[in-house]
Design brief:
With about 220 residues, this protein is an all-alpha fold. Helices cover about 85% and strands about 0% of the residues. Helix 10 packs antiparallel against helix 11. The relative contact order is 0.11. Keywords: Cell membrane, Membrane, Transmembrane, Transmembrane helix.
């Protein structure tokens, strides 16, 4: 039985809601501290995080992977929260693993279901599938925040890249964003305006980099 758009949207909303409730239940003390951030609360937050078992860390990885596989789900919010709780290094590793697993799951699903005509008509899809070096193009697609991961995974399927090349592209491509979210979360909680400025600046740079590549490609074609 094929689900219509409303049914799919309701299922996605239900999944996100359940995940959000589980995270709120597990991390309620941390969330309470985040509502009123201060230098004194930072040490208390670190102590609370260290009390969490490995299973909770794995739950965050699974949550990020799950939200990464759902278009328009608030994956970035969880990645930032991870940076707040675990700091830029451990938070980055959690975000990175979750995003790699989530994108890998999406890629497998696309191989089984195929690419819709609606996706094929997207400009970003055409841009990614017409690159001279497919692996590099996919890597850039994963790096740039304005390109949905779903489109990049569809492009990978359309290009029929090998598993090794796909793993290389998704690993390199999700690395900067995973680190930026973790760094941004840590900077927000520690009230480091320098860190926040660096994160915002890097996001803007990545977006401008993508737009510059598009314009350069258009000029070369003309």
């Amino acid at each position: 039985m094929q689900l219509n758009r409303v049914q799919r949207a309701l299922i996605k909303f239900g999944v996100v809601l359940v995940v959000a409730l589980i995270l709120i239940k597990l991390y309620y003390p941390e969330l309470t501290l985040l509502i009123h951030p201060s230098p004194n609360h930072q040490q208390e937050l670190i102590s609370l995080v260290h009390q969490h078992a490995l299973s909770n860390t794995l739950l965050l990885i699974i949550t990020i992977a799950l939200l990464c596989s759902i278009p328009f789900a608030p994956n970035s919010v969880v990645c930032i929260f991870t940076g707040v709780c675990f700091g830029p290094i451990i938070g980055f590793l959690i975000n990175w693993c979750g995003n790699i697993i989530g994108n890998g799951f999406v890629a497998v699903m696309i191989r089984r279901s195929g690419i819709s005509d609606q996706v094929r008509q997207k400009q970003a899809f055409a841009y990614l599938t017409q690159q001279r070096f497919p692996t590099l193009g996919l890597t850039i697609g994963f790096i740039v925040p304005v390109i949905p991961n779903l489109l990049v995974n569809c492009a990978a399927n359309g290009l029929q890249v090998s598993n090794q090349k796909y793993l290389l592209a998704v690993s390199l491509g999700t690395l900067p964003i995973a680190f930026l979210y973790a760094l941004g979360g840590n900077a927000i909680f520690t009230m480091s305006f320098k860190g926040i400025a660096i994160v915002v600046g890097l996001f803007v740079f990545l977006c401008l980099f993508y737009l510059s590549l598009k314009r350069l490609r258009a000029r070369l074609q003309n």
